[in-house]
Known about the structure:
Layout: H1 2-22, E1 25-32, E2 35-40, H2 51-57, E3 62-69, H3 85-101, H4 124-128
Antiparallel strand pairs: 1-2, 1-3
InterPro entries: DUF8199, HYC_CC_PP
Pfam families: DUF8199
Amino acid sequence: MIKEGLHKVFSMALALLVLISTVSFTIEKHFCGDVLIDASVFAEVERCGMESAEIQYKKSCCKDEVDVIQGQDKLKSSSFEDLDFKQQQFITVFAFVFKNTFKSLSQQVVPHKNYSPPILISDIQVLDQVFII
């Protein structure tokens, strides 16, 4: 039971690791001067409203930064056929031995499992005065 639970936990952890390492996203930031006005990951950033003043004076105090975090594009997928013959042979033998090492034991038959002892009318040891010392 614990083995199955650990297997599920490790499988989920590895799946999340692959998912996180392959996801790409951008972080957009809007600065007005040196002050950060808004930062956003999935939506558009809110502007400070100085765009109309920039058109009149042709001087920009606002700037936008876009940070792109690239995920991994190249995942290596290999198959059993990519290995040479000795490696294939080793993996096959190892898997066979590992599988057969943990075979469950057969259930042992207990012949007197449902046997009920006879009803004692009197204690024979007390009647015969025979005690183990």
